[in-house]
Design goal:
1 helix, five-stranded antiparallel β-sheet, alpha+beta
Length: 117
């Protein structure tokens, strides 16, 4: 019998057969813990891909150059500048390794599962 996932907990680190398998496992854990991931950046180092997955609420609110009184529609954001991130690193064998390097979670969780997609 598996124990329930603690809210806003880190996904388990480990080795996965593909990036898709890693992302699916991380998103499943995140959904059960009340948050979601998005790909923040993807780089290549020594011929191998490194992807940074961040909290969906991470980042700054986009500031348009249009004044609020000239705006046609009112816009809102769910960004809270959450610094929580994990990395997915491609290994020489073609497998992917999940590493958690930022546990400073300030996203506040997701109110509804429909907000995850």
């Amino acid at each position: 019998m598996s124990s329930p996932i603690e809210p806003l907990s880190l996904p388990p680190t480990g080795i996965y057969a593909s990036f898709d398998a890693l992302l699916e496992a991380a998103q499943a854990h995140a959904a059960a813990a009340g948050y979601a991931f998005t790909t923040q950046r993807s780089t290549k180092k020594n011929g191998r891909i490194i992807k940074t997955l961040s909290c969906k609420k991470g980042g700054h609110e986009f500031r348009a150059k249009v004044n609020d009184e000239n705006r046609k529609r009112q816009r809102t954001t769910f960004k809270t500048d959450c610094p929580f991130r994990i990395t997915a690193k491609e290994r020489p064998t073609g497998q992917w390794e999940l590493q958690c390097f930022s546990a400073g979670f300030t996203g506040g969780g997701v109110v509804s599962v429909s907000l995850l997609t």
